[in-house]
Design goal:
It is a single chain. The chain is mainly alpha-helical and 68 residues long. It has one domain. The chain contains 3 helices and no strands. Helix 2 packs across helix 3. The protein starts with a helix and ends in a 16-residue tail after the last helix.
Length: 68
């Protein structure tokens, strides 16, 4: 674990999870590209909007999104 800690940048990290309700997940099964495209876009916009708001974090952020 110590060896992995040396690989980290000296900044705070946050792990956010965005999920779909079961009803939408069923729709996504048949329309993966459309639904997951919307999910990725909406989650990125949400993070950017909240993070850049000076009343909240007022930060420049980067993110990686993973579908699993």
């Amino acid at each position: 674990m110590a060896a992995r800690a040396e690989d980290l940048l000296p900044v705070e990290y946050f792990h956010l999870v965005f999920t779909l309700p079961a009803e939408i997940a069923r729709i996504a099964y048949w329309n993966k590209r459309a639904v997951y495209g919307l999910l990725f876009r909406a989650s990125a916009e949400t993070v950017m909007t909240i993070a850049t708001d000076p009343k909240r974090m007022g930060a420049r952020v980067g993110m990686t999104s993973v579908w699993h």
